[in-house]
Structure formats: C-alpha cells, structure tokens
Design a protein that fits this description.
Oligomer: single chain
Radius of gyration: 21 Å
Structural class: alpha/beta
Order of helices and strands: EHEEEHEEEEEHEHEHEHEEEEEEEH
Length: 305
C-alpha cells in the first residue's frame, strides 16, 4: 500500500509530489487525461514568481516533475477511473486495469477548458487562441481580439483585455448575455468593447498565428470574414471529477468541494489545483494548493501512526 497517491501531473500535482517526496512519503503520481495539465497548452508564462524573463508552460511543469523525481516521487502514465474507500485507506482503479491502494489520496485532476471543437482551433492553440486573458492578455498589447462567450467570465475577460488591446469584440451565440446585470453594463459601456450577436466561429485562419475568423450568423446562416489577432475562449471549464461522483462532495458545477486546508469530505482525501478552484485558476494558486494538500496529507499520516 502506497503512503500517498496523487492524481494529476499538472503544476498542482507536481508541487504536491515535491512536498510529499521531501517528507519521505515516496508518492505515486498518476498522469491523468491531460499529462502536465493546462500549462502544457500555453507558451510563455510571465506571472510565475522567480522567472523574470518568463518560462514556457511545458518546461515549468517538466522541471517541477523532475524536481519531484529527484526527491523520490514516482510517475505513472494512466487515468484514474474510480476511487473507493477500503480498510486502511483507498483503492484507485486505473483505465489500464490496474488497482492501486494508498493510505491517502490527493486529487489534482484539474479542470479542462471548454473548446469550440472546430478543426482549425487546434492549429492555433498558443498561437493566438487561448482560454486565459489573465495569463496571455499582455501578449496582445495594441492588438484587436475577440472574446467568445456571454457569461460573467467572458465579460471579465473582455474588460481585462481592454488594458492591453485597442479593441475587444465579444461574440455571443445568443441575442442576450447570460452575465450578471452589473457585468453586462460595465462591458456595454466600455469604449473599447463591441458586440456581435447570434454568432459563432466557423473557422480560424492565418499563416503561423491567428489573422482572422469566419463568423457564422446562427439566425441567417451567413458566414462573414472578421479580421482579428487573438481569440479568447470564455465558454467555461469542465472539472475532471466525473469518476468521483457519488464518492466525494461536488458543487453544482462539478468542482470538488474542499475546505481552506484542502480537506474533502472524506478523511484522507485531499484536493489541489483547478479541480477545486473555479475562481482563480492560476499556476501559482494551483502550486500553492498542491503544497497545502501534501502537508495536510503528511499530518494525516502522522496521526495514523
């Protein structure tokens, strides 16, 4: 039986692995469906402390993983499909068929951004298509961009982008926004923000980076060309918690519920990263929660002994 199993190899899971490994717990880390987490889909990360020149997202995760391995963490490529409480701990079933046992579990499976699902989208991920204005907005200084979405998150992204961009166009598939009244008013009254209604992206085009999109009007069916240098998707995130339904407490959006010490409702199971964070979703907050979860797991194990 393992001392600690960590589900997820994003920055939260890898940070938890560092702390657990340095506590001589030899954690076993399961990669999950997105090995390396959402940082592997980004290019430059400029807001992570200690990197004044910025750092590539994939490199940040890979170096954190190496750091954990240096202290004795073990990594396994597979996906957790269930979590069961057993005598003395927990059983984690993997998609590959293996069943693992551990005294504690840290869930750091993250939340996957919702994508449009069009073929041209993949080509431009990290090359003009992004899901985080806070992370990437500064790269679009003095450029014109579009934001896809109609909720509070979309309005927040649009308003944030006005700090850098000369023009922000919100594209929404309906005639009315879903955002709260106050957020709607802020966006509608901002001189840099414009709206295109009843529309969605049919195609994203460009040579090496985004140069424009084809917008389809969902009422008329007409497709028009729209020049833009960036596409920010704000259509929500999907927490990777389906395998935990009925086992751990989830909120109405599917996020794992945890207290301020990263404890879930099941003693011995802890949460870290975006799987329990629908507000900040930043690399540094994910890393911090990974640290907290590992330290709490160590205290829990000490109590068992």
């Amino acid at each position: 039986m393992e001392e600690v199993i960590i589900l997820g190899t994003g920055i939260a899971g890898c940070t938890a692995a560092i702390y657990a490994a340095r506590a001589n717990l030899a954690p076993l880390v399961i990669s999950g469906q997105e090995d390396g987490g959402q940082l592997t889909l980004t290019t430059d990360v400029e807001n992570f402390p200690g990197f004044p020149e910025g750092v590539q997202g994939p490199k940040l995760v890979q170096d954190t993983k190496k750091q954990a391995e240096k202290f004795g963490a073990k990594f396994k490529v597979d996906i957790a499909t269930s979590l069961e409480e057993i005598e003395g701990g927990f059983e984690v079933a993997l998609m590959g068929g293996e069943k693992l046992e551990s005294k504690t579990v840290i869930v750091a499976t993250g939340a996957s951004a919702r994508w449009l699902g069009i073929p041209s989208e993949d080509k431009f991920k990290g090359r003009g298509v992004t899901t985080c204005a806070t992370c990437d907005g500064a790269f679009f200084k003095d450029k014109e961009v579009i934001v896809i979405g109609g909720g509070d998150s979309a309005m927040e992204e649009a308003l944030f982008l006005t700090r850098f961009c000369t023009k922000v166009t919100v594209v929404h598939r309906r005639k009315e926004l879903r955002a709260s009244y106050i957020m709607q008013e802020k966006a509608k009254n901002h001189e840099k923000i414009e709206f295109i209604w009843d529309s969605t992206i049919d195609e994203i085009y460009g040579e090496k980076v985004v140069e424009g999109v084809k917008l389809k009007n969902l009422v008329s069916g007409d497709v028009t060309d729209f020049k833009t240098q960036g596409v920010f998707l704000a259509i929500g995130h999907i927490p990777n918690t389906k395998f935990l339904e009925g086992k751990l407490n989830l909120d109405d959006k599917g996020y794992l519920e945890a207290d301020k010490f990263m404890h879930t409702n099941m003693k011995g199971v802890f949460a870290a990263g975006d799987v329990q964070d629908l507000r900040f979703r930043q690399a540094i907050t994910a890393a911090g929660s990974g640290c907290m979860a590992a330290m709490e797991a160590e205290k829990y194990l000490s109590g068992l002994e």
